[in-house]
Amino acid sequence: MWSFQTVNAIENNKYDPTLMLAFNLAKELNTTVDELFKPI
């Protein structure tokens, strides 16, 4: 679970996410990292 500080940092573009975060986020959203960050 993310803390309020983490969410705030993400919203203010002051958070540098890790690759592990990308994998965890994809898992929680039941998708792949490629689909999460697919160019538009």
From TrEMBL:
<feature type="domain" description="HTH cro/C1-type">
    <location>
        <begin position="3"/>
        <end position="36"/>
    </location>
</feature>
<dbReference type="InterPro" id="IPR001387">
    <property type="entry name" value="Cro/C1-type_HTH"/>
</dbReference>
<dbReference type="GO" id="GO:0003677">
    <property type="term" value="F:DNA binding"/>
</dbReference>
<dbReference type="Pfam" id="PF01381">
    <property type="entry name" value="HTH_3"/>
</dbReference>
<protein>
    <submittedName>
        <fullName>Helix-turn-helix</fullName>
    </submittedName>
</protein>
<dbReference type="InterPro" id="IPR010982">
    <property type="entry name" value="Lambda_DNA-bd_dom_sf"/>
</dbReference>
